[in-house]
Design brief:
This protein is mainly alpha-helical. The chain is built from 6 helices and 2 strands; from the N terminus they run ββαααααα. It is 44% helix and 3% strand.
Length: 126
């Protein structure tokens, strides 16, 4: 089963398989299947063509994949251009949503470890 040029994995249930599309998480996948009237526990291979078309029609009304990525990057660029606090945090590569930076935020800042304490190792006696 292919939707928006992306193959939905055949070995996973359809409600999990739809999450491979950027912009569809678990709750959105469940609501799409509910609107289409499809059982979420089915595998993509067990879905009829009519059910597949219903899912495809609903998904095509949503902003997903490349369009969504462009929209998100445009929003971040706008924040940077107007020099908003969040935009400055994006520019500097720091956490954007108010998290502390004295400890944690290693992934956001990069894995540069600072030595804690005296920085001396205990020398072994030889």
């Amino acid at each position: 089963m292919r939707i928006l040029g992306i193959t939905i994995p055949d070995e996973k249930r359809i409600d999990i398989g739809l999450t491979v599309l950027f912009g569809i998480g678990r709750s959105r996948a469940v609501s799409i299947l509910k609107d289409a009237g499809v059982d979420g526990s089915k595998k993509p291979t067990a879905i009829s063509i009519e059910e597949e078309n219903k899912i495809r029609v609903i998904i095509e009304t949503l902003t997903l994949e490349g369009d969504l990525k462009r929209e998100v990057s445009a929003n971040v660029k706008r924040l940077k251009d107007i020099k908003a606090y969040r935009g400055v945090r994006h520019t500097r590569g720091l956490p954007v949503r108010g998290q502390r930076t004295k400890t944690n935020s290693r992934t956001r800042r990069g894995n540069v470890r600072k030595t804690m304490g005296t920085g001396r190792r205990v020398a072994e006696k030889t």
